[in-house]
Predict the 3D structure of the following.
Amino acid sequence: MKATAVAHPNIALIKYWGKRDKDLNLPAVGSISLTLDTIETRSTVVFREDLPEDRLLLNGETASPAQTQRVSRFLDLIRSKAKLDLRAEVSSTNNFPTGAGLASSASAFASLALAGSKAAGLELPPSRLSELARRGSGSAARSIFGGFVEMKTGELSDGTDAVAMPLDDAKGWDIRLVIAVTSHSEKKIGSTEGMEHTARTSPFYQHWVYQSQQDISAMRQAIFSRNFQLMGELAEYSAFKMHAVALSARPALLYWNSATVDLIHYIRNLREQGLPAYCTIDAGPQVKILVREADLQDLLEQLHHLRAVKEVIVTAPGPGARLITEEDD
Ligand code: PMV
């Protein structure tokens, strides 16, 4: 009753911000993402007879009661599907900063969905794994798959059609996503709270939801036609629109720090000088930059001159979640 799985974070190019159902964690808008390589979460789940309660180790240390409770609630979903009444020991390790807008919940719950279901004796097909991962975190549904992935809002009230599906494996596409880390501190307002607050108080929220399908269709076109410029422009547009809606909440949600703003100006200037790079930002201060492989070295050289950038992580399109056998280790 033990299994280990690896999953990679994904970065949304068309952003998810807003829920149509809180309990089932159903998104109000669709989203399109790119799964990354290089950075990953590895989770091991063991169901054991001798445990009085679930245990969670995060990066080798006992997790907080709130984190353990969130994982325990997620394991309850697996236990009820598998008709299992055992507690589990979960160990999750990230090879990148946790909780600072680097999509750690996506890779965490995607790896947990796969390792947990397997350890419980379930063989779930990818769409059901995506549905399960979504219950842990909306963006986790996308990390089940590699390359470009689309998350559907779905229409059914039970959420069985609110799942992600692969769009394009990105093979042969020379794109890179560079993460410029501007702060290592954990964000203060999590995405769920931020989304609820935005939906409740922003006068622009309904319009954000209303327009989202257009953005999804345009991004699909950009991906299928492998049009890097259009993809970059649409990704920036969606990210800034999401932050504009969050900023229009009352009180405003501001996830950026001054280094985030400096970087946005910097990327725009690079573009004016002929280096095609585009940025996207999630519920945190990090700036993720889309660039072609041919321009990567130029971009990295430029970033190294900026004191605002604490760390740079270079990623390329990566694979979906997968089980790790002992021979793989
Ligand atoms: O999956 P969650 O609940 O952490 O929400 C993710 C929200 C954003 O990262 C801001 C956007 C997205 O689509 O990933």
Observations:
- The CA atoms of residues 30 and 248 lie 21 Å apart.
